[in-house]
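Quick one - first record:
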Amino acid sequence: MQGSARRRQFPPAAPGSQPPGGSFYQGRHGSAKNEDTFKTSQFHFDLWFYFTLQNWVLDFGRPIAMIILPLEWFPLNKPSAGDYFHMAYNVITPFLLLKLIERSPKTLPRSVVYVSIIVFVMGASIHLVGDSVNHRLIFSGYQHHLSVRENPIIKNLKPETLIDSFELLYYYDEYLGHSMWYIPFFLILFIYFTGCFTPIKEESRMPLAALVLMGPSSLYYWYLVTEGQIFILYIFTFFAMMALVMHQKRKGLVLDSNGLFLFYSFIITLVLIGAWVVWLWNDKILRKKYPGVIYIPEPWAFYTLHLSNLHSAKEGF
């Protein structure tokens, strides 16, 4: 038909040339070949520095800010300064974890990462509420080295069903919140760790900046594991890292600077945990609160047992 549109004819392709739309095809399918290639990876000093800094300030520092700042500024029926620290942590930490995944020289399973980030935010938010109430109870005489029912301000509550409510709050804080917070946190770190291998021996060195950050990073992981009571999760993650290192070594691959930084930080953390346990091994009161096979006291339980009285005495002077 004369009015019908003619089919568009392409000239014959020259040998070795791409067909029409070849660039799109290569962008979608040719990337699969690039996923198996190893790119040069530099030490992510900026991300590790921000990550370590915000961990210390927003996570470790939040209960300290709550205790130090005057109650007149943050009444007991309002969020404390530590709560605002926790809110900032819940936003900044997922962002830094996502940036860390983006910097990986290897393509990682993004769907698993995104789901982990969602669960992480949910768990950290649950913990925000439970931890806020539990730490505010310190001002009323609550003692963290005792169980909920053994606390002087809790055991005489009437009706007794109120004690069940406080135990539920403790469960959300210490068990459900911690599990939904820390499991995806360590999973993301491990996923990132799987992309930290290189065949280039020269890249398996840590710069001076990494050595400087390793101390505060390891010390924070010690606090995270002991205060969060997540030693089993931590040690399984560490064993998985060791197994992966040995497996990749057989292929001629070694850890790059970022992988070494994370791996050595976990090793130093294990040493710090061992020293902490040995130091408090004969503490009968803490032994009563942590009667299980794995005895790892929480730093805040140690504080309320041994240091809070000293702090109150100094304020009295």
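second record:
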Amino acid sequence: MVSKKVLIVYAHQSSGSFNSAAKDAAVEVLTAKGCAVEVSDLYAMTFKATATAEDITGKVKNADHFCYGEETKLAWEAGKLTADISEEQRKLTEADLVIFQFPMYWFTVPAIMKGWMDRVLTLGFAFTHEKRYSQGIFKDKKAMLSFTTGSQESMFSANGINGDMNVTLWPLQNGILHYCGFQVLAPQIFWAPSHVPSEARGTMLEGWRTRMQGLLGENPLAFTPLDCFDGEKGYQLKPEVHEKHAAKEFGLTVGIHLGKALPPNNQMKAGV
């Protein structure tokens, strides 16, 4: 049996952080299970966070009106992306599972990790107009978010001051990961580790270690398939799909909610 390859994209500056401990636990457990694990430590790599024309070697097609998406597509096709991008694309191409490990900053990923997504997931390599969402380029790969919060879990509830975490996760999990075709595994959320006793942090890590024993066999989160939308009518949900769910209590997903109540834990648990 061929060993699975795992890429951990890691964004924290401190080796003494909880995020570092979570990353190390993943490397240890997955390696022990026979996986080949590679880590992209973005701060240690001083990874460039800004998507600019400097990401292309040589001349660009239209310097006067530079379009990053189109220009990097051409550069990818010609093998003219900078070495740091090409190396991350190699890692991603080889990976069966990608884990993004990070502290949540302002309800999303840190800038250096967003820069990885902006620069590595280029047009042509990670998605095209035809190949996206359920028909995406990475549909045979799995990806997941593993992150710490500064706020306690109750603050990210449907009644909490921060709002429903399922809503917070929709742009990242649907708009980036699922958009590129990834099968998105339920996130691993470490709620406010800096505000709990060390024993509780140890329990969190043990829960992560336990989950990783069966991580590669987990079912992904549910998203509405691309063929449920009419590309000739602005990618609106097809009438027959809409009608099928008309009498149901909840919408299809957090984003495609049909004006109904959001399906509980749609972005946090598989099978709902």
